[in-house]
Amino acid sequence: MSGLTPEQAWLRLRAGNERFINGTSQHPNQDSSHRESLVRQQNPFAVIFGCSDSRLAAEIIFDLGLGDAFVVRTAGQVIDLAVLGSIEYSVAALGVPLIVVLGHDNCGAITATKEAVDTGEMPRGYLRNLVERITPSVLASRRDGGQGVNDYMVEHIKQTSARLVETSRVVAEAVEKQQVAVVGLAYRLNEGRAELVSSLGSI
């Protein structure tokens, strides 16, 4: 276990992102001695569930090193059973105090969903599965006045965070006991900033 509270974990993550934005990254915990210390155990302080987009490398944008974050990625940060199992493992077995749901602007999966909603034509193959899972977020955002992909992205982060707590009893109980917080972050590709858009639990 990291020994950090959810608030301390969030502050550490935010500080790393500020260093990345300012071009002062420290690249911590990447030396050979630290690598060797992780052979028999890991104590990450956060699990980051983010989009698979190549521009969204979590360890880089939060200036992290080996063993700092347990990272789970799918296109459009879409939840499935493997994602739930991975996040529950990070909470139950590794004791992480912070769960991050990380989306970004100009997301291809959300753009594909917008096109499907606009045209009524679903994509072929397994991309259809992603679109079907993201569609409720797009519709909810439009209902509330959202007008484009980046508005839909923020709503999808909020919906995904809420669904994670609603679906996983392990996560819900940890949040209720104030052992874990769930934060939703929207990453801005141009400036490199991860903005807080939602939070469940105490940070």
TrEMBL record:
EC number: 4.2.1.1
Cofactor(s) required for function per UniProt: Zn(2+)
Keywords from the named record: Lyase, Metal-binding, Zinc
PROSITE patterns for the chain: PROK_CO2_ANHYDRASE_1
First-tier enzyme category under EC: lyase
Family annotation (InterPro entries): Carbonic_anhydrase (IPR001765), Carbonic_anhydrase_CS (IPR015892), Carbonic_anhydrase_sf (IPR036874)
Transmembrane segments: none
Catalytic activity field: hydrogencarbonate + H(+) = CO2 + H2O
SUPFAM superfamilies in UniProt: beta-carbonic anhydrase, cab
Phylogenetic classification of the source organism: Bacteria, Bacillati, Actinomycetota, Actinomycetes, Micrococcales
Source species: Psychromicrobium silvestre
Name of the protein this chain belongs to: carbonic anhydrase
Family the entry assigns: Belongs to the beta-class carbonic anhydrase family.
